[in-house]
């Protein structure tokens, strides 16, 4: 259930504490968030003001690589470290979360049914009152009877009643909206309808995250939100300072580090992934004893668009294995159903046996060996 969440390295909380800053000049919190229905105000809505308001939903949007997933993971960790929420709101919260994962295609890890199953399981774990309530519901009797197939309507109705039964406030974190794949074309509509139904009929606060696809822009036009790239400057400065300072002692003085940090932050356009890549590039330059001017040129000429970044990554791969990487990315891009590791392994084997992959072995590659090769290919990036 936490597979995707556990793939992300834990970030230092100090990088994301800006989320608790109150919106400047907000005054009455309810009015401040209500005013966010205006497009300009909506795009700079305060998270804390939203928590204290009657607004049910909050939207975290942003460019690819801007850190949406990282922020949502930080918020989901508040179950283990609840002090910020308790201090700010004065009440106890249960945090439940679900992260849609495109790698799961249309399986339970990327479906509305999987979302409700996961949220219900977490509520039962963290609340004794909810656990007692579920046993008395039709769903509880269904599960106790040994039945595994559960109708979506039953999951949905139980979810609503559980939210009413909890003794604490509940914040539902749902990430990766743009990665959702339903059964039919236009499935974003099903996801949006489910989220709006959950927000309308429950007492929970629903915080969703995803790229600003047109369907979400239209559906959430009156929902308060933040754009990650607009709030990342301080985070980028802190992260870049920590990373470069750790390696700069033998190469750069404090003034040069600060200058390089500011240049990276200004050039980043709020895209955290770009910052991570260019910082690693600069560290390599430090190890090569490059001058300050050479390091600045690395920043200046590093690709600005993610497509260009990925092309650069691919071009730096060794010739051996480059065709494998290109075919692998093509398969995943064209058909998400092949993102299952076993499907990828079998497909690559067939292509090799037909002479379409020069460097890939024609003999059978075992599952563990293929996982290692996959990690090696992507690890070069």
General description of the model:
A five-stranded parallel β-sheet has the order 2-3-4-1-5, with helices on both faces. It has three domains: 3-230, P-loop containing nucleotide triphosphate hydrolases (Rossmann fold, 3-Layer(aba) Sandwich); 233-311; 319-379. The protein has helices spanning 3-6, 29-34, 39-42, 47-51, 68-76, 83-89, 112-126, 128-136, 138-144, 152-165, 188-201, 214-219, 233-248, 254-267, 272-287, 292-301, 306-315, 322-334, 341-353, 367-379, and strands at 57-61, 93-99, 169-175, 205-209, 225-227. The model is unreliable at 25-42 (pLDDT under 50). Helix content is 54%, strand content 7%. Helix 13 (233-248) packs parallel to helix 15 (272-287). It is of the alpha/beta class and 381 residues long. It has 20 helices and five strands.
């Amino acid at each position: 259930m936490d597979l995707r969440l556990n793939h992300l390295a834990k970030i230092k909380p100090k990088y994301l504490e800006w989320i608790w800053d109150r919106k400047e000049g907000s005054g009455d919190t309810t009015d401040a968030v209500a005013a966010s229905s205006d497009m300009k105000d909506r795009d700079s809505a305060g998270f804390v003001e939203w928590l204290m308001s009657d607004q049910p939903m909050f939207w975290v949007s942003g460019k690819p690589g801007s850190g949406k997933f990282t922020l949502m993971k930080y918020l989901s960790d508040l179950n283990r470290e609840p002090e910020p929420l308790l201090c700010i709101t004065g009440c106890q919260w249960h945090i439940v979360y679900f992260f849609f994962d495109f790698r799961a295609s249309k399986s339970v890890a990327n479906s509305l049914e999987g979302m409700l199953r996961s949220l219900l399981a977490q509520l039962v774990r963290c609340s004794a009152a909810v656990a007692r309530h579920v046993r008395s519901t039709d769903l509880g009797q269904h599960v106790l009877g040994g039945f595994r197939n559960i109708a979506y309507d039953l999951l949905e109705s139980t979810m609503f009643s559980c939210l009413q039964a909890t003794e604490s406030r509940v914040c539902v974190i749902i990430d990766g909206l743009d990665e959702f794949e339903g059964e039919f074309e236009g499935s974003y509509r099903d996801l949006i309808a489910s989220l709006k139904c959950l927000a309308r009929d429950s007492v929970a606060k629903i915080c969703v995250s995803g790229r600003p696809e047109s369907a979400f822009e239209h559906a959430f036009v009156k929902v308060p939100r933040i754009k990650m790239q607009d709030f990342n400057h301080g985070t980028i400065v802190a992260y870049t300072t920590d990373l470069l300072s750790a390696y700069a002692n033998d190469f750069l003085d404090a003034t040069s580090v600060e200058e390089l940090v500011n240049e990276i932050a200004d050039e980043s356009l709020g895209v955290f992934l770009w910052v991570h890549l260019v910082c690693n590039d600069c560290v390599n330059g430090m190890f090569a004893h490059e001058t300050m001017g050479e390091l600045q040129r690395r920043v200046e000429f590093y690709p600005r668009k993610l497509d260009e970044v990925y092309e650069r990554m691919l071009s730096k791969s060794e010739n051996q294995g480059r065709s494998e990487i290109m075919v692998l990315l093509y398969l995943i891009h064209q058909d998400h159903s092949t993102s299952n590791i076993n499907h990828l392994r079998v497909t690559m084997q067939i292509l090799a046996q037909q002479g379409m992959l020069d460097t890939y072995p024609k003999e059978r590659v075992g599952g563990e060996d293929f996982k290692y090769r996959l990690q090696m290919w992507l690890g070069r990036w």
